[in-house]
Amino acid sequence: MTRNHAPQFLALVNDARSRVRECTVAEVHQRIEAGEYFNLIDVREESEFAAGRIPTASHLGKGVIERDIETCFPDPATELVLYCGGGYRSVLAADALQRMGYTNVISMDGGYRGWKEAGYPLEH
Is 87 a domain residue? Predict the structure, then answer.
């Protein structure tokens, strides 16, 4: 899932990654198939979310997640699984939420792209 991102951006992501719990696309799919309850949050831009998303996901873009998270999920122990396009923005968002006191935040490595490549269902 590597892309040609700028070195400083990758350094920022890797620093955040050292503090954030991650899961795989397959693990999230398994949990959804098993009927497990958790909050799946798409942190991509609104236009990306509108074009296609993982079923059961709600949208809370990276640009506003820190501002709106407490209104949407007031309990800081709520399980939040974040995803973006490939797993970079979700790591940054998860790190920020943890610094805000959220204790059960996970970033889905591979993101929407990994989900789509695995052939899992999508909503449009």
Answer: yes
CATH number of the domain residue 85 falls in: 3.40.250.10
Catalytic residue selected from 13, 25, 32, 84: 84
Q: In total, how many domains does the chain have?
A: 1
Cβ atoms 13, 96 nearer than 8 A? no
Encoded tokens for 119: 């052939």
Which ranges of the chain would DSSP assign to H, the alpha helix?
7-17, 25-33, 46-51, 65-72, 89-99, 111-117
- Whether 58 is covered by a domain: the verdict is yes
- Give residue 42's domain range: 22-117
Across 7-12, average pLDDT: 96
Per the DSSP assignment, residues forming a β-bridge with 71 are none
- Is 84 a catalytic site residue? yes
Q: Is 16 among the domain residues? A: no
pLDDT in tens, 86-121: 999 999 999 999 999 999 999 999 999 999 999 999
Token pair listed for 94: 């998860």
